[in-house]
Amino acid sequence: MAKLGKRLKTASENIDRKTFYGITDAVKLIKNGATAKFDETIEVAMNLGVDPRHADQMVRGVVTLPNGTGRDMRVAVFARDAKAEEAAAAGADVVGAEDLMERIQGGDIPFDRIIATPDMMALVGRLGKVLGPRGLMPNPRVGTVTPDVKKAVEDAKGGAVEFRVEKAGVVHAGVGKASFDEKAIEENIRAFTDAVTKAKPAGAKGTYLKRVAISSTMGPGVKVDLASLASAD
Fold first, then answer.
1. The pTM is what?
2. Residue 5: its pLDDT value, please?
3. How large is the C-alpha radius of gyration of the chain?
């Protein structure tokens, strides 16, 4: 804990908590402060002017980051026959039907994304109570219920990031690694911000995008000037 405290203190010395930094400067500060012995994830947190308890204010979607996530995504696919073969060929880690359902019911869920063909949803629906709380339930709105399993698997492996607003009106996601160069991190943050902005629901009133902050896994947060995300900084 002492080492963690010292590292966080050192990383925080160059950051003014009251300042809203341009995205380019914010990325530089976060990258320089990511000094852990592992490749830290760069994370974005966005405060939105929505109340997700209302259906017409739910924010949900998926975006493929231009530079990937730097993370090895484990993908499971519910499919049969030719579609199962297609998913396996595309690089799915696990493909199955009843056998996969039983595995998940048993608590063995080492997956980051679960994809299903439409005809499998009657089976997958039985897993709602298990997958729902984990954010793993396949959904056609984010492309995880689809007949095109090849594309869905390739997207997941290639940097597709799902997002969904939480109760407090916050959307957060990992958008890269500290080992990425600054330009790649910035491009990913811009792509993610654009996707969330375009997902503005019909019921959102007033200011939609309120605050954006970025951080690394073990580092302090940096507030981002929203104007710098709207155009080149």
1. 0.80
2. 60
3. 19
